[in-house]
Write a structure and sequence with these properties.
Length: about 375
């Protein structure tokens, strides 16, 4: 009876004070954001770290070798990730700066063309007559413009301060998350052992067994998803680069590398990289930029309907239709974060339900074999 009474009180509180309760939960989660981000970073880096540890003198028994394996694997993993990110940035940023320089260099010519067009209006009596006959209150327009400029200056200053404050806060949170991630990776066995002892001492054995089983399946699905996503990004970036070289589009290497990185965002990542690629190409050749958009549309269809469901869906054992559904629903509910989490969460639920069905049919699932 006690647990039903507590449940009734919780439901009643949610119905009476929903905004206050969910607001408090939101504030609590926002405080934990650096820790959540650090745990996510640790999980992603740990996948590469585990792979490296398998090849770092696996049969060594010397104390110094065993003690050095983990720190060296962490260092190499972080350096590899930073090397890839910095390499892509060094490819893309100079080209993007050149594109902006080309745009600003083209501005005087565009302004001259507009001036010539405005001057030609004087020669068109019909347009001049309509402008002259129009009752335009230029004094009112001037006062509104001056008011906008006056209030806009303070608004720009406030926005600038807000932007710098957000950047500084973001950097602090990132540093805290990074340090927290290092602590998790370096001491994951101790943390895991402490959690196991805590569950064994205070929770029922049946519940502990089910929890470990669910965690095992979840870890398997998320690890496979991240590996498949990286492979899919590599395939898509390679195909984009080769296609751009074949059709003689400019900036093939930086655009292909950028699309390969942004493809880590399921299904729509190629569009994000394609938008930047369009800007880089449009400065050199607007016609080729339009053709590039057509090429990206075709490549995106191939990626969304052929490559992604098979590579990522195959790595996590999820049917292609469920992959598309997970990305669509996850994106609608949580934006980019929802897209990233939608597929592995759906794969985890699918695997748990499939294994439950197997047990009902008397078949032992692979995770329990």
């Amino acid at each position: 009876m006690l647990k039903y009474g507590i449940l009734a009180i919780v439901v009643l509180a949610l119905l009476i004070y929903p905004h206050a309760i969910f607001g408090a939960i939101g504030n609590f989660v926002s405080v934990l954001n650096p820790l959540i981000l650090g745990a996510a970073m640790a999980y992603c880096v740990n996948i590469l770290c585990r792979l490296l540890e398998r090849y770092m003198w696996p049969n060594a028994t010397a104390k110094w070798a065993v003690g050095l394996r983990r720190p060296l694997a962490i260092l190499v993993s972080i350096l590899l990730i930073l090397l890839i990110i910095s390499g892509v940035l060094r490819l893309v940023i100079p080209q993007f700066v050149n594109a902006l320089n080309g745009f600003f260099k083209a501005m005087p010519g565009t302004i001259n063309d507009v001036n010539h067009w405005l001057n030609s209006l004087d020669k068109n009596n019909a347009i001049t007559a309509k402008l002259s006959s129009a009752s335009i209150d230029w004094t009112s327009i001037q006062s509104k413009v001056m008011k906008f400029l006056t209030t806009g200056a303070s608004g720009v200053f406030t926005s600038t301060v807000s932007v710098f404050s957000s950047i500084f806060s973001g950097l602090i949170n990132f540093v805290l998350s990074f340090v927290f991630a290092l602590y998790i990776i370096s001491g994951k066995e101790k943390i895991g052992g402490w959690l196991n002892r805590l569950m064994d001492d205070f929770l029922p054995a049946k519940f502990v067994a089910k929890t470990r089983y669910v965690v095992h399946v979840t870890d398997s699905m998320f690890s496979s998803f991240i590996g498949g996503q990286v492979l899919e990004g590599f395939i898509l970036g390679t195909l984009c680069t080769l296609g751009m070289l074949l059709f003689q589009f400019p900036n093939a290497l930086p655009v292909g590398a950028l699309i390969g990185i942004t493809a880590l965002i399921p299904m729509v990542g190629a569009w994000i990289g394609g938008t930047v690629g369009f800007v880089l190409i449009a400065v050199t050749s607007p016609i080729k930029a339009v053709l590039f958009v057509v090429y990206i549309m075709i490549l995106q269809q191939v990626e969304g309907n052929v490559i992604y469901p098979r590579v990522v869906g195959g790595s996590i054992g999820l049917p292609g239709i469920l992959v598309l559904a997970a990305v669509t629903v996850g994106g609608g509910l949580g934006g980019i974060v929802g897209m990233l989490l939608g597929v592995p969460v759906t794969a985890t639920l699918y695997r748990l339900m499939r294994n439950a069905t197997f047990r009902k049919e008397g078949i032992l699932p692979a995770e329990e074999n």
